[in-house]
Amino acid sequence: MILKSVEDQLELTFTYLPTCFSRLAFLASVRDSYTGRYLHEGWAMQSSAEQVHEILRRKHKDVFNLVLNMPLVTVCGELKGYLESLANAQQRTMTLWLELESYRDMLPEGISRVSRAFFLSQIKMALKVLLTIPKWSLTQAQPASLHPLLVPPLPRHLKN
After folding, report:
1. CA-CA distance, 110 to 67, in Å (whole number)?
2. According to the per-residue pLDDT averaged within each range, which of 5-14, 68-77, 133-142, 143-152 is highest?
3. What phi, psi does 123 have (nearest 5°)?
4. Which residues, listed in sequence order, are joined to residue 31 by a DSSP beta bridge?
5. Which of 44, 74, 79, 87 is the most exposed place for a label (fewest CB within 10 A)?
6. If 0-12 CB within 10 Å is exposed, 13-18 middle and 19+ buried, where does residue 154 land?
7. How many other C-beta atoms are found inside a 10 Å radius of the C-beta of residue 26?
8. What residues pair up with 83 in beta bridges, in sequence order?
9. DSSP string of 21-51?
10. Is 51 contained in some domain?
11. pLDDT of res. 4
12. Residue numbers of the domain that contains 90
Protein backbone atom coordinates (compact mmCIF):
# COMPACT_ATOMS: atom_id res chain seq x y z
CA MET A 1 0.00 0.00 0.00
CA ILE A 2 1.43 3.37 -1.02
CA LEU A 3 0.52 6.19 1.30
CA LYS A 4 -0.10 9.59 -0.21
CA SER A 5 0.79 11.96 2.58
CA VAL A 6 2.47 12.44 5.91
CA GLU A 7 -0.99 12.78 7.46
CA ASP A 8 -1.88 9.31 6.14
CA GLN A 9 1.30 7.85 7.58
CA LEU A 10 0.68 9.55 10.91
CA GLU A 11 -2.85 8.13 11.05
CA LEU A 12 -1.46 4.67 10.24
CA THR A 13 1.09 5.07 13.04
CA PHE A 14 -1.72 6.05 15.40
CA THR A 15 -3.53 2.76 14.69
CA TYR A 16 -0.61 1.05 16.47
CA LEU A 17 -0.78 3.58 19.32
CA PRO A 18 -4.28 3.06 20.66
CA THR A 19 -4.32 5.62 23.47
CA CYS A 20 -3.95 9.38 23.49
CA PHE A 21 -1.11 9.09 25.99
CA SER A 22 0.88 6.71 23.78
CA ARG A 23 0.34 9.08 20.85
CA LEU A 24 1.51 12.01 22.95
CA ALA A 25 4.65 10.08 23.91
CA PHE A 26 5.32 9.27 20.25
CA LEU A 27 4.91 12.88 19.14
CA ALA A 28 7.24 14.06 21.90
CA SER A 29 9.81 11.47 20.81
CA VAL A 30 10.04 12.84 17.25
CA ARG A 31 10.78 16.36 18.47
CA ASP A 32 14.36 17.50 18.98
CA SER A 33 14.45 18.81 22.56
CA TYR A 34 17.21 21.29 21.70
CA THR A 35 15.60 22.96 18.69
CA GLY A 36 11.91 22.14 19.11
CA ARG A 37 11.84 20.85 15.53
CA TYR A 38 9.89 17.71 14.70
CA LEU A 39 11.71 15.28 12.48
CA HIS A 40 10.87 11.88 11.08
CA GLU A 41 13.53 10.72 8.63
CA GLY A 42 11.23 8.40 6.68
CA TRP A 43 8.52 11.01 6.24
CA ALA A 44 11.05 13.71 5.36
CA MET A 45 11.85 11.76 2.18
CA GLN A 46 8.22 12.04 1.15
CA SER A 47 7.65 15.67 2.04
CA SER A 48 9.67 18.73 3.01
CA ALA A 49 11.14 18.88 6.49
CA GLU A 50 9.11 22.04 7.13
CA GLN A 51 5.85 20.35 6.16
CA VAL A 52 6.60 17.32 8.38
CA HIS A 53 7.46 19.69 11.24
CA GLU A 54 4.19 21.64 10.88
CA ILE A 55 2.01 18.53 10.67
CA LEU A 56 3.62 16.94 13.73
CA ARG A 57 3.61 20.23 15.68
CA ARG A 58 -0.09 20.74 15.04
CA LYS A 59 -0.95 17.11 15.87
CA HIS A 60 1.12 17.30 19.07
CA LYS A 61 -1.00 20.23 20.28
CA ASP A 62 -4.22 18.43 19.30
CA VAL A 63 -3.33 15.22 21.15
CA PHE A 64 -2.03 17.20 24.13
CA ASN A 65 -5.38 18.99 24.40
CA LEU A 66 -7.18 15.64 24.36
CA VAL A 67 -5.03 14.39 27.25
CA LEU A 68 -5.38 17.70 29.06
CA ASN A 69 -9.17 17.37 29.04
CA MET A 70 -9.25 13.81 30.41
CA PRO A 71 -10.40 13.19 33.97
CA LEU A 72 -7.64 12.02 36.32
CA VAL A 73 -8.98 8.47 36.43
CA THR A 74 -8.67 8.23 32.63
CA VAL A 75 -5.15 9.69 32.72
CA CYS A 76 -4.24 6.99 35.26
CA GLY A 77 -5.62 4.27 33.01
CA GLU A 78 -3.88 5.57 29.90
CA LEU A 79 -0.60 6.07 31.72
CA LYS A 80 -0.82 2.55 33.17
CA GLY A 81 -1.48 1.11 29.71
CA TYR A 82 1.43 3.05 28.23
CA LEU A 83 3.83 1.94 30.96
CA GLU A 84 2.74 -1.69 30.54
CA SER A 85 3.69 -1.45 26.86
CA LEU A 86 7.29 -0.53 27.73
CA ALA A 87 9.92 -3.20 28.27
CA ASN A 88 11.14 -1.60 31.51
CA ALA A 89 9.91 -2.37 35.00
CA GLN A 90 6.89 -0.14 35.63
CA GLN A 91 7.64 0.68 39.27
CA ARG A 92 11.18 1.78 38.44
CA THR A 93 10.00 3.83 35.45
CA MET A 94 7.32 5.61 37.48
CA THR A 95 9.75 6.38 40.30
CA LEU A 96 12.28 7.71 37.80
CA TRP A 97 9.62 9.82 36.04
CA LEU A 98 8.63 11.38 39.36
CA GLU A 99 12.24 12.16 40.19
CA LEU A 100 13.40 13.43 36.78
CA GLU A 101 10.02 14.70 35.55
CA SER A 102 10.83 13.39 32.07
CA TYR A 103 7.12 13.68 31.19
CA ARG A 104 7.79 17.43 30.78
CA ASP A 105 9.10 16.55 27.31
CA MET A 106 5.51 15.75 26.35
CA LEU A 107 4.51 19.42 26.60
CA PRO A 108 4.06 21.01 23.18
CA GLU A 109 5.53 24.41 22.49
CA GLY A 110 3.36 27.47 22.94
CA ILE A 111 0.80 26.29 25.50
CA SER A 112 -0.37 28.47 28.35
CA ARG A 113 1.22 28.33 31.79
CA VAL A 114 -2.10 27.19 33.23
CA SER A 115 -2.37 24.27 30.79
CA ARG A 116 1.26 23.40 31.42
CA ALA A 117 0.83 23.40 35.22
CA PHE A 118 -2.41 21.41 35.04
CA PHE A 119 -0.91 18.73 32.77
CA LEU A 120 2.17 18.36 34.97
CA SER A 121 0.04 18.07 38.11
CA GLN A 122 -2.22 15.46 36.45
CA ILE A 123 0.72 13.31 35.37
CA LYS A 124 2.44 13.63 38.73
CA MET A 125 -0.77 12.68 40.54
CA ALA A 126 -1.42 9.75 38.18
CA LEU A 127 2.11 8.45 38.82
CA LYS A 128 1.59 8.70 42.57
CA VAL A 129 -1.74 6.87 42.33
CA LEU A 130 -0.20 4.07 40.28
CA LEU A 131 2.78 3.77 42.63
CA THR A 132 0.48 3.67 45.66
CA ILE A 133 -1.95 1.18 44.13
CA PRO A 134 0.12 -0.92 41.69
CA LYS A 135 -2.69 -3.38 40.91
CA TRP A 136 -5.14 -0.58 40.16
CA SER A 137 -7.35 -1.59 37.24
CA LEU A 138 -9.99 1.11 36.92
CA THR A 139 -9.33 2.65 33.52
CA GLN A 140 -12.40 4.82 33.00
CA ALA A 141 -14.53 6.93 35.25
CA GLN A 142 -17.97 5.56 35.87
CA PRO A 143 -20.91 7.92 35.57
CA ALA A 144 -22.05 9.06 39.00
CA SER A 145 -25.52 7.62 38.42
CA LEU A 146 -24.11 4.07 38.39
CA HIS A 147 -22.77 4.37 41.93
CA PRO A 148 -25.15 3.32 44.69
CA LEU A 149 -26.50 6.11 46.82
CA LEU A 150 -24.70 6.32 50.14
CA VAL A 151 -27.56 8.27 51.72
CA PRO A 152 -31.18 7.62 50.82
CA PRO A 153 -32.88 10.56 49.09
CA LEU A 154 -34.86 12.92 51.28
CA PRO A 155 -38.63 12.51 51.10
CA ARG A 156 -40.48 15.18 49.16
CA HIS A 157 -42.69 17.45 51.20
CA LEU A 158 -44.43 19.14 48.33
CA LYS A 159 -46.18 17.46 45.45
CA ASN A 160 -46.09 18.94 41.99
Report:
1. 16
2. 68-77
3. -65, -45
4. 38
5. 87
6. exposed
7. 19
8. none
9. HHHHHHHHHTB-TTT--B--HHHHTTS-HHH
10. yes
11. 65
12. 6-132
Specify the number of domains making up the chain: 1
Residue 19 belongs to some domain of the structure? yes
Amino acid letter, 22: S
What pLDDT, in 10s, does the model give residues 61-108? Answer: 999 999 999 999 999 999 998 988 887 778 899 999 999 999 999 999
The span from the CA of 128 to the CA of 132, in Å, is 6
What pLDDT band is residue 48 in, cutting at 50, 70 and 90?
confident
pTM of the entire predicted model: 0.79
pLDDT digit string, tens, across residues 28-47: 999 998 999 998 877 767 78
In a domain, 158, yes or no: no
Amino acid letter, 112: S
- Are the beta carbons of 135 and 84 closer than 8 angstroms? no
